[in-house]
Amino acid sequence: MTIHNAITELVGNTPLLRLNRFTQQSGLQVDLLAKLEYFNPNHSIKDRIALAMIEEAERSGKLQPGDTIADTTSGNTGIGLAAIAAAKGYPFRVYMHDKVSEERFKIMKALGAEVIPFSEVEGFAVIMEESDGDFVAAARWLAENVITREPDVFHTAQLENPANPAIHYHTTGPEIWQQTDGQVDIVIAAVGTGGTVSGTGRYLKQQNPAIRVIAVEPGPFSIPDAENEDAKEITGVHAFSNILPERVPLTLDRSVYDEAIAVEAWQATAAAREVALSDGILIGESAGAVLHAAREVAKRPENQGKRIVTILADSGLNYLSTSLFDHNISIGQLQVDALVKGSAVRRAS
Ligand SMILES: Cc1ncc(COP(=O)(O)O)c(C=O)c1O
């Protein structure tokens, strides 16, 4: 009998799929593989860190029965934490960007979370303005001034918790190594906290230092700032090149990746729409960004014949209320919108 006792047993061991038709339709001469993280019980890679951060805190005694678990998240970590907190019997409180898709608010509430949008936190708007819309700075301010001031709260702190990169070192990396029998040339992942790329990359490079690790960040038109607040973001993905050192999350190890590739939101959308039609997989925005980057990398002459593993973080189901799969909004339109907004900012400054 294979009966699982709790959703905690269903986290990880996600499948690796060859994207035959996407590869062919893009005219690529590589072996392009996708680690489908939406096979996790709550449909994203963040189930891994949610479980790891909670169980590490239980082991170390930082989390006691009756405590409330709390964090700041753009969505997937919150969904993972909400589900695992529910399955283990802890209350969960999440502080979230107002722009996060409607589905995420609903899912977290359905899983019993107390959801607090940033706009309802007193003083938060001032911090966002002072930090130029920077997520890491905002999360730190929230942690110090709001989250940890409440009694009996365990703050999971995904942006600095070592259990975050560690779980990718212990699970995501070894899974890729075993699934490919060690035959992997390039690994590509998007960066939010940096946990995925740092942990997975470190493990794989220890097995074979020749493996190239590529980290994906948003391009200049997909990074909101004080002057271009409405820039269309790639959910969950944050800039890490050209930022102040104090704004780099502690969970991102900058020595692990060999290269950073910037992708714009419309390019991520295009790739996500294409792979849905070519291979029948419904992925989220950051996964689209990773696929776009993979296609660029695959076109380089030196990469012909190589095996590329893409880590696709979540499911497209979380974005049905956004423009991601809204075919009434063309990629050209998304691109023009982003360029016009960005150029208007440049003209004004
Ligand atoms: C949709 C999505 N993709 C990618 C990432 C990046 O993963 P990591 O935080 O491990 O860098 C995140 C998390 O922030 C995410 O929510």
Strands, total number: 10
Radius of gyration: 19 Å
Structural class: alpha/beta
Strand content: 5-15%
Largest β-sheet summary: 6 strands, mixed
Alpha plus pi helix count = 11
Indicate the topology.
Elements: E1 16-18, H1 20-25, E2 31-36, H2 46-60, E3 68-72, H3 76-88, E4 92-96, H4 102-110, E5 114-117, H5 124-130, H6 135-145, E6 153-155, H7 163-179, E7 186-190, H8 195-207, E8 212-218, E9 259-263, H9 265-279, H10 285-298, E10 307-312, H11 331-348
Parallel strand pairs: 2-10, 3-4, 3-6, 4-5, 7-8, 7-10, 8-9
Antiparallel strand pairs: 1-2
Residues 74-76, 190-196, 235-237, 284, 286, 313-314 line the site of pyridoxal-5'-phosphate.
Features:
349 residues, alpha/beta, Rossmann fold, 4-stranded parallel sheet, binds pyridoxal-5'-phosphate
Describe this structure in words.
This protein has 349 residues and is of the alpha/beta class. The chain has 2 domains: 203 residues, Rossmann fold, CATH 3.40.50.1100; 110 residues, Rossmann fold, CATH 3.40.50.1100. Helices cover 40% and strands 14% of the residues. The protein has a 6-stranded mixed sheet. β3, α3 and β4 form a beta-alpha-beta unit. The termini are far apart. 49% of the residues are buried. The model has no long low-confidence stretch (mean pLDDT 93). The chain binds pyridoxal-5'-phosphate. The site of pyridoxal-5'-phosphate has 17 residues, from α8.
